[in-house]
Write a structure and sequence with these properties.
By secondary structure, this protein is mainly α. The chain has one domain (18-172). The chain is built from 7 helices and 2 strands. It has a two-stranded parallel sheet with strand order 1-2. The longest helix is centred in the N-terminal third of the chain and has 21 residues, at 39-59.
């Protein structure tokens, strides 16, 4: 994600790393640094990372500062620096499912209105990437994530029951 211009990933909150929807679309080259055969792995990993972060924040807000300090997970937000076809407001957290939508979204052309276009012009892809198949990876990752969540809560924040947390995550998938 270090390929994303700082003006884009720090637009909404300079203290957090934000990923805007359009950064993940095939019209931009930001994922090109990742080998093509790993795009699905990246998308699923980002999906789970954002899902866990949002689940924690939504359900255990009083303990979130500790979690945030330990994980430094990125935030997935609506488009701010490049208004697009995606219906969202700048800076509003988006459901992680939209990550999986964005990676294959050929309808979203990113910046339709030339809003701060100069920041992202050089990063447009003149040959959009191939469709990313993530379905089988998403299902395979479920057990891995369950194990990771179990380990995290048992070793870092045992005051939160990992089984309860996992149930809340599964409701969002």
């Amino acid at each position: 994600m270090g390929q994303i211009p700082i003006d884009g990933n720090k637009h909404y909150d300079r203290n957090e790393f934000n990923i805007q929807y359009f950064f993940l679309t095939p019209q931009y080259k930001y994922l090109n640094i990742i080998p093509q055969d790993r795009h699905g792995l990246f998308a699923v990993a980002l999906f789970w990372t954002v899902l866990v972060d949002q689940t924690f924040y939504s359900n255990y807000r009083q303990s979130y500062p500790t979690f945030q300090r330990k994980t430094l997970y990125p935030k997935f937000i609506g488009n701010c620096t490049a208004p697009s076809l995606m219906s969202s407001d700048c800076g509003h957290h988006q459901h992680p499912r939209k990550i999986l939508q964005a990676i294959n979204d050929t309808a979203d052309k990113g910046n339709r209105f030339d809003f701060e276009r100069e920041i992202f012009n050089k990063d447009e892809s003149y040959q959009p990437r191939l469709v990313i198949d993530y379905y089988s990876i998403l299902e395979q990752a479920r057990q891995v994530m369950k194990d990771e969540i179990t380990d995290y809560f048992e070793n870092h924040q045992p005051e939160i029951r990992w089984t309860e947390f996992w149930t809340k995550c599964e409701r969002e998938i």
